[in-house]
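Narrative of accomplishments. A recurring question from our advisory board has been how the design workflow behaves on a single, concrete structure rather than in aggregate. To address it, we present the structure tokens for one chain from the evaluation set, followed by the sequence designed for it. No filtering or post-editing was applied between the two.
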């Protein structure tokens, strides 16, 4: 984010779960913070909340140059053979479908950008099929990230065809 803010005439909008500076996950600090970085509190586990946040941003800015989709949930899970489908679904809803819905909500604002706009999906080694390990029981997280990887790779292929 600091690299983005180093560019002139750039505003970064950070959607964070808890924008309080004492929050350990609060990563948006620096001398540029007060004037060029806007925060919006957002719990993106619900589709309508993502859309509301994006509509609010669009009403204020009309276009977006970059979106970094880094939100997600992780957590230990029971053995996959013992996990319920609903337990897996909670991870998939946020880490895969949630990011896809975010893309669909911002795509028109990205297309309105005067620069070469980017949507960046952040994944992790947990979603890799080639470096998979079950040392830490993260089956639901890994499956959701693998699905997200597939969806965004497919989306990239669709976008280059059109």
């Amino acid at each position: 984010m600091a690299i983005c803010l180093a560019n002139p005439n750039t505003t970064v909008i950070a959607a964070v779960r808890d924008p309080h500076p004492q929050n350990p996950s609060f990563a948006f600090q620096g001398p540029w913070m007060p004037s060029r970085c806007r925060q919006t509190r957002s719990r993106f586990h619900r589709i309508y909340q993502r859309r509301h946040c994006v509509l609010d941003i669009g009403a204020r800015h009309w276009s977006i140059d970059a979106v970094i989709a880094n939100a997600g949930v992780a957590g230990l899970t029971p053995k996959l053979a013992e996990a319920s489908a609903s337990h897996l679904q909670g991870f998939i809803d946020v880490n895969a479908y949630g990011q896809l819905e975010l893309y669909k909500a911002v795509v028109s604002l990205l297309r309105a950008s005067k620069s070469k706009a980017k949507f960046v999906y952040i994944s992790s080694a947990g979603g890799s099929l080639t470096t998979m390990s079950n040392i830490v029981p993260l089956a639901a997280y890994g499956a959701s990230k693998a699905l997200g990887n597939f969806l965004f790779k497919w989306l990239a292929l669709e976008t280059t065809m059109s």
